[in-house]
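Moderator note: this is an archived Q&A kept for reference. The question asked for a predicted structure of one protein chain; the sequence and the answer are reproduced below.
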Amino acid sequence: MKNITDSFLSFGYWPSAGSFELNTDILATNPINLSVVLGGLIFFGKGVLSDLLDNRKQKILNTIRNSEELRGGVIEQLEKARARLRKVEIEADQYRVNGYLEIERIILDLMTSTSKTLEQLENNKNDTIHFEQQRAINQVRQRVFQQALQRALGTLNSCLNTELHLRTIIANIGMVEAMKEKID
């Protein structure tokens, strides 16, 4: 340590400016060289280093600011998307409910229509049965009446004379025509 301080303090030890020597004492020359280099770097590099650090600081601040703006935009878009999703879910629920109501209405309409159709078919069946019964009854009446008329005519022919027979036939024809008009 004494050599280091001696190299700084004793100027007489240094050779004159006219001659050049190599100082091989590492402990004496390294701290001087390092102090000169560091001093030069600090003096000359202070501005450059300061500018580089300021530029880097501005880039980092701009990146942070841009990231915050993007984050805010993304959050806003997310909220809009969530609002649209809620709206679409509500509409889907409405369509689903309306669809169920429409299906129930269609089923009710079909049941009502089927019921009316069955009722009309039942009424038509009953009307057809009643009509066929009346037709059968009228046919039976006509046969019974014809048979009765033939028996009566047979009895009258055997019992009556010609004049009485003619009056009876005319009267019976009038009765048959009257009955026929009632039937039609």
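Archived answer notes: The chain has one domain: 31-168.
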